[in-house]
Amino acid sequence: MTALIEELKTLVGAAHVLVDGDLSAYEVDWRKRAHGKALAVVRPGSTGEAAAVVRACAQAGVAMVPQGGNTGLVVGATPDESGTQVVLSLQRMTAVRELDAANMTVTVEAGCVLQSLQEHARNAGFLFPLSLAAEGSCTIGGNLATNAGGTQVLRYGNARDLCLGLEVVTPAGEVWDGLSGLRKDNTGYDLRDLFIGSEGTLGLITAATLKLYPLPAATLTAWAAVPSMQAAVQLLGLARRHLGAGLTGFEVMGQFALGLVARHFPQMRVPFVQDSPWCVLLENADHESEAHARGQFETLLERALEEGCVTDAVVAENIAQARQLWHVRESIPLAQAEEGLNIKHDISLPISRIPAYCEETDALLLREIAGVRLVNFGHLGDGNLHYNVQAPEGGDAATFLREREEAVNALVYDQVRRHGGSISAEHGVGSLKVDSLPDYKSPVALGMMRAIKGGLDPRNLMNPGRVVRP
Amino acid sequence: MTALIEELKTLVGAAHVLVDGDLSAYEVDWRKRAHGKALAVVRPGSTGEAAAVVRACAQAGVAMVPQGGNTGLVVGATPDESGTQVVLSLQRMTAVRELDAANMTVTVEAGCVLQSLQEHARNAGFLFPLSLAAEGSCTIGGNLATNAGGTQVLRYGNARDLCLGLEVVTPAGEVWDGLSGLRKDNTGYDLRDLFIGSEGTLGLITAATLKLYPLPAATLTAWAAVPSMQAAVQLLGLARRHLGAGLTGFEVMGQFALGLVARHFPQMRVPFVQDSPWCVLLENADHESEAHARGQFETLLERALEEGCVTDAVVAENIAQARQLWHVRESIPLAQAEEGLNIKHDISLPISRIPAYCEETDALLLREIAGVRLVNFGHLGDGNLHYNVQAPEGGDAATFLREREEAVNALVYDQVRRHGGSISAEHGVGSLKVDSLPDYKSPVALGMMRAIKGGLDPRNLMNPGRVVRP
Hints:
Number of domains of chain A: 4
CATH class of the largest domain in chain A: Alpha Beta
Number of strands of chain A: 19
Radius of gyration of chain A: 23 Å
CATH architecture of the largest domain in chain A: 2-Layer Sandwich
Oligomer: homodimer
CATH topology of the largest domain in chain A: Uridine Diphospho-n-acetylenolpyruvylglucosamine Reductase, domain 3
Shape of chain A: globular
Largest sheet of chain A: 8 strands, antiparallel
Structural class of chain A: alpha+beta
Strand content of chain A: 15-25%
């Protein structure tokens, strides 16, 4: 292995092959659940260097773990504990290669931080709509490798839907230049979408061409109290009809989740938390004017009040108020952490099944664990719930997790399967869910995934042990 | 083979295994370029029957050719001339299995005709936005297998973007039930998008779950005279900013193309055809009201007149006028046929490159062939041109095609490659382009395509000779 490390130093420079010192930023995952050990962390500075590094590793038969901002939630981008895997860090490849205003596209290297790209686009008068909690640290390459979701999916889709082309280093170290700025291209299999969401197991994404959108003229936020999850689903239908593509956000939050925010962050005002079992945050992005957006929101909310799916509502008066409302929504995970460890799920369901799912699963959990508390919130417009389970009031959270996590997961996921849902809506599989996936995924689908992995990475050197086992 | 045919009759009923009589509807392609001969045409009535048919053919080592409405333009769905291939016709599997209003999805069998699905959705108060010339005959399965485009791609995307889940019979005859109504699902490789656009070479699509949208409150159409292709690109940028997601159509048409319509269909009024080198048809679908849509259009067109990218414009006063304008656009291919045989291309380019592409390629063609006439029109909003080449005035079209087609294709496609475009934007590869694809596609991409084909269809029984050769 010494020979390989020397070769890697020749390829990218000794300063960019890390073997000593504290490498925990590369070896420990975001939620600190896995503590790996790398043979080396290699940071190529260009696509050519990245390809040379992959060829050298492949020749030595050494497994590689692609890594962007290392903000993933399913232990998909850190090395295992063996000390035999090379981390391929993209963090030096951050260039915006081209912004094509007439084509409304931007071509960017994989290591570019999401927030930098958002700002670059905004400075050119465009919106790059991908937006998620980790945007200050996560990278475009990681966003694409995991098909990231976030808060704007309802209107703009997942990371997949924002990507027109990719540049990829294959497991053999060849470069596929698929950096197309084309909106239509039917010349063969959709390799782009195969790499997107494959979590680095089929190759290394080094750059991407992404869609840009016009900046909206005004973005307004509203907060509505709704009497039930069924009413929230009804409000979603109304909002889609009244606001059309203007509806860019539709977040649902349960009373207990909002109560945790009110309890742990008493300086925040949480509208309607006392009286309403559910609240919904709506966002309306208008290409015309703020006045128009406000009129649209008012018409919608009046109609919803008449139909009884909303009991009360406020529309933010200005950007500061809108930010406060979003801040409440975004503070739920922190408030949960303040309350203590809990069992997290990132599930999706057909929207029509969500009310029944929640009612049944809440009841089953309460029957199993008296007093268990449900922190339920999520992107209702995408059918995506963060259906989290917190220990009973006063119970010991660590014990709860140790004793109950497996059974709770089984119950929650079995219900997901029964309602035609997914056990990973936006976080991916990684190594955390690789061994439970076969319980919830069709064996025919898994067989095809294995055939594809075998065809594209026959020696299983790219991020082994993630997504699918040979 | 007699034994196989007897077995197929047992599986689907003798009436649905066609071997005698006139089978040209299944054996000859839409443009009548290829006259094949099938071993048999089999019409399964259910997914179970389809899987049994595939298993029987696979066991006998017989190649299969999936077929929907047989409206494809690249000879991808008819059997070769050997008489050894079985056509799998989906035309009996037409059921709409479920329309889920709250989830805004519809699940439909592959043989359902596109227009039937559009009507089914409309009757339930929804829009299914896929729309193309062959919609009265083409099927959903074929639309997905070829990733069909059409006139609404600018707003709603290609067929790929409208699909959430698939049911597929694999080349071994297993059924993959991937009929998900989920908008987010990150549990492994994106098999859905791999099958979409694979033109029946990886498996047989038997059903799909598709997205629905709210019906717009009003749809308006405008027709603008623009002084150049560059001005058309500028108008597109303005329209995207002013109309946002309301902009559902943006079709560009050259003066010669429109002149053919005026010449061969003198009863049609073709606005501005005398005076303007290019015209643009714009469509604005509004979720609010017709008055709002009209106001938006007027603001946009005034601004465009001020900026000089539009020299004159009309907005249709009513639906009848709007239909007339679309009818002019849709009559271009017919007018071309009236004028005589011509060399057709379905290319895409980055939108920013289109003005230079047209200027250069027009000049190169005119240098090669004095008096050659260019019928240029297409979906500019998607970067998709139908850049067609017609014989010089008075020249013999058949001779022109025979003598010039190969050289013209090479010139047009070399220019496409030079400008980063695609030689097949929406029609696919089929058998028509399978052997020219390697000249225009990256060998790394082709290598990955072969690996995938080999992994999923190792015996090359599914639509062999299409898209990629082993």
